[in-house]
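re: that chain from earlier
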Amino acid sequence: MRWLVTGAGGMLGRDTVEELLARGEQVTGLDHAALDITSPGAVDHALAAHHPDVVVNCAAYTAVDDAEKDEERALRVNGDGPRLLARACAAHEARLIHLSTDYVFAGDAHTPYSEDHPPAPRTAYGRTKLAGERGVLDELPAASTVVRTAWLYGVHGRSFVRTMIGLEASRDTVDVVDDQRGQPTWTADVAATIADLGPRVGVDATGVLHATNSGEATWYELAREVFRLLGADADRVRPVTSEDFPRPTPRPAYSVLGHGRLQRLGLARARDWRTALHEALPRIRKETLRETP
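^ sequence. v structure.
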């Protein structure tokens, strides 16, 4: 199979390219400089040049707070871009895997969100990502899959886990929010799910799927686990509320996603978040130290 990964310079995009290459697949990774997904001409040219069987869209406007101030710009990338990709995939007979987010939900639930739970985004970022989902499913209903994920961290790029590694080395104590719950998720596990999905998109894997690690935690609990795995005193992490860290855009209080559809497809890679973090952290720490001047 021939794969084309957009947003290949980002955390998940890089892991997806690496996973596909490790499996011996033919893959082309294009970062934002190589492909602007908001340009119809550029999108059509990319598909015509590379003839992919599957396109994976990891390109996104992810600055949640900035999106609140400039929703129009975020909508171009998160809403219009995926629709253009889906339209081009239809014209070039390619399948599409589009990455989305827990922010499409209201974040006020108490049990995991199923794939068919009604979306109700409360932020500009969430609204623009929902527009992208709908654009993909409207333009390419029989040959696309929307994969929602959440609370990502990885070896490449910025993440909460990497931030905690740095703070453990530089501060005596760290205050971390303890009233937002979600699923810490390693991008390498999501990339593996994407690679598994490719051959089945348009066969028995269409519509919306959720791909995260299993279990749930608050940011405070995640930070304590990072400290523990670093061999540090986890009590140096102190719990606070969201009110102690006001943000321009409120974060969802509950971001836990259910994996019912992946399980029914036999593709669930939802191992416990602690297990994934235990494997990932030495690699992230090594990369963090390598990049530190």
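The mean pLDDT is 96.
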